[in-house]
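tool=predict chain=A
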Amino acid sequence: MSRDTDVLVLGGAGVDTVIPVPELPLPYADSYMIDSGIRTRAGHTGDFVAVGLAALGLRTHHLDFLGDDPEGDLVRALHREKGIALTAIPQPAGTKRAVNLVGPDGRRLSLYDTSRAHDGDRLPESVVRSLAEASRHVHVSITHPCAFALPVLRETGVPLSTDLHDWDGENPYHEPFAYAADVVFVSAAALTDPEATMRRIVERGRAEVVVATAGAEGAHLLADGESTRIPAAAPPAPVVDSNGAGDAFAAAFLFGRLNGEPPSRCAQYGAAAGAYACTIPAAQSAALSHEALLAALDR
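tool=predict ok
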Protein backbone atom coordinates (compact mmCIF):
# COMPACT_ATOMS: atom_id res chain seq x y z
CA MET A 1 0.00 0.00 0.00
CA SER A 2 1.25 3.48 -0.88
CA ARG A 3 2.12 5.63 2.12
CA ASP A 4 1.74 9.26 1.04
CA THR A 5 2.21 10.60 4.58
CA ASP A 6 5.05 10.00 7.01
CA VAL A 7 3.15 11.01 10.15
CA LEU A 8 -0.55 11.58 10.75
CA VAL A 9 -1.13 13.73 13.84
CA LEU A 10 -4.51 13.18 15.49
CA GLY A 11 -6.03 15.93 17.64
CA GLY A 12 -4.40 18.73 19.58
CA ALA A 13 -5.30 21.70 17.34
CA GLY A 14 -6.08 24.98 19.03
CA VAL A 15 -5.15 28.52 19.93
CA ASP A 16 -3.34 30.02 22.92
CA THR A 17 -3.50 33.52 24.31
CA VAL A 18 -0.06 34.08 25.81
CA ILE A 19 0.31 36.46 28.76
CA PRO A 20 3.79 37.16 30.21
CA VAL A 21 3.55 37.60 33.99
CA PRO A 22 6.15 38.80 36.51
CA GLU A 23 6.11 35.56 38.49
CA LEU A 24 4.31 32.25 39.05
CA PRO A 25 2.27 31.69 41.10
CA LEU A 26 0.84 35.10 40.31
CA PRO A 27 -0.06 36.98 43.51
CA TYR A 28 -3.57 38.38 43.67
CA ALA A 29 -3.90 41.97 42.50
CA ASP A 30 -6.69 44.04 41.02
CA SER A 31 -4.71 44.43 37.79
CA TYR A 32 -1.33 43.90 36.14
CA MET A 33 0.25 45.96 33.38
CA ILE A 34 1.68 43.68 30.65
CA ASP A 35 4.28 45.84 28.92
CA SER A 36 5.52 43.10 26.58
CA GLY A 37 2.03 42.58 25.17
CA ILE A 38 -0.65 39.91 25.16
CA ARG A 39 -0.67 37.78 22.00
CA THR A 40 -2.90 35.10 20.54
CA ARG A 41 -1.43 32.45 18.26
CA ALA A 42 -2.20 28.98 16.93
CA GLY A 43 -0.36 26.18 18.64
CA HIS A 44 -1.66 23.38 20.87
CA THR A 45 0.17 20.09 21.29
CA GLY A 46 -0.87 18.56 17.97
CA ASP A 47 -0.02 21.75 16.10
CA PHE A 48 3.45 21.90 17.66
CA VAL A 49 4.18 18.24 16.93
CA ALA A 50 3.08 18.73 13.33
CA VAL A 51 5.23 21.85 12.96
CA GLY A 52 8.24 20.02 14.40
CA LEU A 53 7.78 17.04 12.08
CA ALA A 54 7.33 19.20 8.99
CA ALA A 55 10.39 21.31 9.82
CA LEU A 56 12.44 18.10 9.84
CA GLY A 57 11.22 17.25 6.35
CA LEU A 58 8.58 14.65 7.19
CA ARG A 59 5.36 14.60 5.19
CA THR A 60 2.83 15.50 7.85
CA HIS A 61 -0.98 15.49 7.96
CA HIS A 62 -3.05 16.83 10.86
CA LEU A 63 -6.63 15.76 11.63
CA ASP A 64 -8.83 17.43 14.24
CA PHE A 65 -11.97 19.45 14.91
CA LEU A 66 -11.93 23.17 14.09
CA GLY A 67 -14.58 25.84 14.41
CA ASP A 68 -15.61 28.35 11.77
CA ASP A 69 -14.19 31.17 13.85
CA PRO A 70 -11.13 33.48 14.13
CA GLU A 71 -9.29 30.87 16.20
CA GLY A 72 -9.87 28.24 13.54
CA ASP A 73 -8.58 30.67 10.92
CA LEU A 74 -5.36 31.04 12.90
CA VAL A 75 -4.86 27.26 12.98
CA ARG A 76 -5.55 26.96 9.25
CA ALA A 77 -3.12 29.79 8.51
CA LEU A 78 -0.37 28.15 10.57
CA HIS A 79 -0.72 24.90 8.63
CA ARG A 80 -0.66 26.73 5.29
CA GLU A 81 2.43 28.66 6.33
CA LYS A 82 4.28 25.52 7.42
CA GLY A 83 3.14 23.38 4.48
CA ILE A 84 1.21 20.92 6.66
CA ALA A 85 -1.82 19.11 5.24
CA LEU A 86 -4.88 19.69 7.42
CA THR A 87 -8.21 17.87 7.56
CA ALA A 88 -10.57 19.94 9.70
CA ILE A 89 -13.78 18.36 10.98
CA PRO A 90 -16.39 21.11 11.64
CA GLN A 91 -16.86 21.88 15.33
CA PRO A 92 -19.98 23.98 16.06
CA ALA A 93 -18.76 24.65 19.61
CA GLY A 94 -15.71 26.45 18.23
CA THR A 95 -11.97 25.91 18.06
CA LYS A 96 -10.22 24.84 21.25
CA ARG A 97 -8.45 27.65 23.05
CA ALA A 98 -6.46 28.31 26.20
CA VAL A 99 -4.74 31.08 28.13
CA ASN A 100 -1.07 30.58 29.05
CA LEU A 101 0.47 32.60 31.87
CA VAL A 102 4.25 32.53 31.27
CA GLY A 103 6.75 33.44 33.99
CA PRO A 104 10.21 34.99 33.48
CA ASP A 105 11.85 31.57 33.89
CA GLY A 106 9.78 30.07 31.05
CA ARG A 107 7.39 28.10 33.27
CA ARG A 108 3.72 28.37 32.43
CA LEU A 109 0.22 27.94 33.82
CA SER A 110 -2.37 26.92 31.21
CA LEU A 111 -6.09 27.61 31.53
CA TYR A 112 -8.15 25.55 29.07
CA ASP A 113 -11.59 26.54 27.80
CA THR A 114 -13.48 23.25 28.01
CA SER A 115 -16.71 24.70 26.64
CA ARG A 116 -15.51 24.22 23.07
CA ALA A 117 -16.12 20.49 22.90
CA HIS A 118 -18.95 17.99 23.38
CA ASP A 119 -18.92 14.59 25.07
CA GLY A 120 -20.24 13.11 21.85
CA ASP A 121 -17.47 14.45 19.62
CA ARG A 122 -16.07 11.66 17.43
CA LEU A 123 -13.62 11.83 14.56
CA PRO A 124 -15.26 10.13 11.55
CA GLU A 125 -14.11 6.51 11.52
CA SER A 126 -13.80 6.38 7.74
CA VAL A 127 -11.59 9.48 7.70
CA VAL A 128 -9.38 8.20 10.51
CA ARG A 129 -8.97 4.84 8.81
CA SER A 130 -8.18 6.19 5.35
CA LEU A 131 -5.66 8.76 6.58
CA ALA A 132 -3.99 6.25 8.93
CA GLU A 133 -3.68 3.62 6.19
CA ALA A 134 -1.92 6.21 4.02
CA SER A 135 0.61 6.98 6.78
CA ARG A 136 3.81 5.37 8.06
CA HIS A 137 3.05 6.43 11.64
CA VAL A 138 0.27 8.05 13.68
CA HIS A 139 0.84 10.34 16.67
CA VAL A 140 -2.25 10.55 18.90
CA SER A 141 -3.05 13.49 21.17
CA ILE A 142 -4.80 12.61 24.43
CA THR A 143 -8.00 14.45 23.60
CA HIS A 144 -11.43 12.94 24.22
CA PRO A 145 -12.31 12.21 20.55
CA CYS A 146 -8.93 10.56 19.96
CA ALA A 147 -9.61 7.99 22.68
CA PHE A 148 -12.49 6.65 20.58
CA ALA A 149 -10.26 6.50 17.50
CA LEU A 150 -7.75 4.13 19.14
CA PRO A 151 -9.53 0.85 18.19
CA VAL A 152 -9.72 1.88 14.54
CA LEU A 153 -6.07 2.90 14.55
CA ARG A 154 -5.01 -0.43 16.04
CA GLU A 155 -6.97 -2.26 13.32
CA THR A 156 -4.91 -0.51 10.63
CA GLY A 157 -1.67 -1.91 12.04
CA VAL A 158 0.07 1.45 11.69
CA PRO A 159 2.55 2.17 14.53
CA LEU A 160 1.25 4.65 17.10
CA SER A 161 2.79 7.13 19.51
CA THR A 162 1.23 9.33 22.16
CA ASP A 163 2.25 11.92 24.73
CA LEU A 164 0.67 11.53 28.18
CA HIS A 165 2.01 14.94 29.25
CA ASP A 166 1.83 15.43 33.04
CA TRP A 167 0.20 12.08 33.85
CA ASP A 168 0.55 11.07 37.50
CA GLY A 169 0.66 7.38 36.63
CA GLU A 170 -2.74 6.81 38.25
CA ASN A 171 -5.42 8.76 36.36
CA PRO A 172 -7.35 6.13 34.37
CA TYR A 173 -8.15 8.60 31.57
CA HIS A 174 -4.61 8.25 30.18
CA GLU A 175 -4.41 4.47 30.29
CA PRO A 176 -6.06 3.65 26.91
CA PHE A 177 -3.50 5.90 25.22
CA ALA A 178 -0.59 4.57 27.27
CA TYR A 179 -1.41 0.92 26.55
CA ALA A 180 -2.31 1.29 22.85
CA ALA A 181 0.82 3.11 21.65
CA ASP A 182 4.09 1.63 20.42
CA VAL A 183 6.01 4.73 21.55
CA VAL A 184 4.93 6.57 24.69
CA PHE A 185 6.11 9.97 25.86
CA VAL A 186 5.30 11.29 29.34
CA SER A 187 6.53 14.09 31.56
CA ALA A 188 8.28 12.92 34.71
CA ALA A 189 7.04 16.00 36.59
CA ALA A 190 4.11 14.28 38.34
CA LEU A 191 5.60 10.78 38.58
CA THR A 192 6.91 9.66 41.98
CA ASP A 193 8.82 6.79 40.35
CA PRO A 194 9.28 7.38 36.60
CA GLU A 195 10.99 4.07 35.88
CA ALA A 196 8.29 2.04 37.65
CA THR A 197 5.58 3.83 35.67
CA MET A 198 7.47 3.31 32.42
CA ARG A 199 7.87 -0.41 33.07
CA ARG A 200 4.18 -0.71 33.93
CA ILE A 201 3.29 0.87 30.58
CA VAL A 202 5.41 -1.73 28.79
CA GLU A 203 4.02 -4.63 30.85
CA ARG A 204 0.36 -3.70 30.42
CA GLY A 205 0.48 -2.32 26.88
CA ARG A 206 2.31 -2.75 23.62
CA ALA A 207 4.95 -0.04 23.95
CA GLU A 208 8.39 -0.81 22.54
CA VAL A 209 9.82 2.47 23.82
CA VAL A 210 8.82 4.76 26.70
CA VAL A 211 10.38 8.16 27.33
CA ALA A 212 9.84 10.26 30.46
CA THR A 213 11.10 13.79 29.88
CA ALA A 214 12.46 15.68 32.88
CA GLY A 215 13.25 19.17 31.60
CA ALA A 216 16.70 20.41 32.55
CA GLU A 217 17.45 16.99 34.07
CA GLY A 218 17.19 15.28 30.68
CA ALA A 219 15.03 12.24 30.08
CA HIS A 220 14.52 8.62 31.13
CA LEU A 221 14.51 6.13 28.25
CA LEU A 222 13.18 2.58 28.49
CA ALA A 223 13.85 0.45 25.41
CA ASP A 224 14.40 -3.30 25.02
CA GLY A 225 13.96 -3.67 28.78
CA GLU A 226 16.91 -1.40 29.50
CA SER A 227 16.58 1.92 31.32
CA THR A 228 18.93 4.74 30.24
CA ARG A 229 19.31 8.33 31.36
CA ILE A 230 19.55 10.82 28.50
CA PRO A 231 21.28 14.08 29.45
CA ALA A 232 19.62 17.38 28.66
CA ALA A 233 20.95 19.36 25.71
CA ALA A 234 22.27 22.86 26.30
CA PRO A 235 19.85 25.48 24.96
CA PRO A 236 21.45 27.52 22.14
CA ALA A 237 20.07 30.78 23.61
CA PRO A 238 18.44 31.98 26.85
CA VAL A 239 15.38 30.02 27.96
CA VAL A 240 12.25 32.14 27.55
CA ASP A 241 9.35 29.65 27.47
CA SER A 242 9.03 25.90 28.08
CA ASN A 243 5.77 25.66 26.13
CA GLY A 244 6.11 23.21 23.27
CA ALA A 245 9.38 21.65 24.47
CA GLY A 246 7.80 18.23 24.98
CA ASP A 247 6.13 18.41 21.56
CA ALA A 248 9.45 19.30 19.94
CA PHE A 249 11.09 16.38 21.75
CA ALA A 250 8.43 13.98 20.47
CA ALA A 251 8.67 15.25 16.88
CA ALA A 252 12.46 14.91 16.74
CA PHE A 253 12.36 11.48 18.41
CA LEU A 254 9.86 10.26 15.82
CA PHE A 255 12.01 11.72 13.04
CA GLY A 256 14.90 9.59 14.25
CA ARG A 257 12.74 6.50 14.64
CA LEU A 258 11.30 6.79 11.14
CA ASN A 259 14.84 7.10 9.81
CA GLY A 260 15.92 3.88 11.51
CA GLU A 261 17.96 5.41 14.35
CA PRO A 262 18.31 3.49 17.65
CA PRO A 263 16.21 4.75 20.60
CA SER A 264 19.17 6.42 22.34
CA ARG A 265 19.97 8.48 19.24
CA CYS A 266 16.28 9.35 18.82
CA ALA A 267 16.24 10.61 22.42
CA GLN A 268 19.31 12.77 21.73
CA TYR A 269 17.45 14.26 18.77
CA GLY A 270 14.52 14.93 21.08
CA ALA A 271 16.69 16.56 23.75
CA ALA A 272 18.25 18.92 21.21
CA ALA A 273 14.87 19.90 19.72
CA GLY A 274 13.31 20.37 23.15
CA ALA A 275 16.17 22.63 24.27
CA TYR A 276 15.78 24.74 21.15
CA ALA A 277 12.01 25.06 21.71
CA CYS A 278 12.66 26.60 25.14
CA THR A 279 14.44 29.53 23.45
CA ILE A 280 11.45 30.46 21.27
CA PRO A 281 9.13 33.18 22.64
CA ALA A 282 5.67 31.91 23.50
CA ALA A 283 3.98 33.99 20.81
CA GLN A 284 5.96 32.28 18.03
CA SER A 285 6.06 28.80 16.51
CA ALA A 286 9.43 27.66 15.20
CA ALA A 287 11.21 24.32 15.04
CA LEU A 288 14.61 22.93 14.11
CA SER A 289 15.29 21.89 10.53
CA HIS A 290 17.11 18.63 9.81
CA GLU A 291 20.37 20.50 9.23
CA ALA A 292 19.98 22.58 12.39
CA LEU A 293 19.20 19.46 14.42
CA LEU A 294 22.39 17.72 13.28
CA ALA A 295 24.38 20.88 13.95
CA ALA A 296 22.93 21.08 17.46
CA LEU A 297 24.02 17.50 18.13
CA ASP A 298 27.52 18.27 16.85
CA ARG A 299 27.74 21.16 19.31
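The two ends are 40 Å apart (CA to CA). The longest strand covers residues 60-66.
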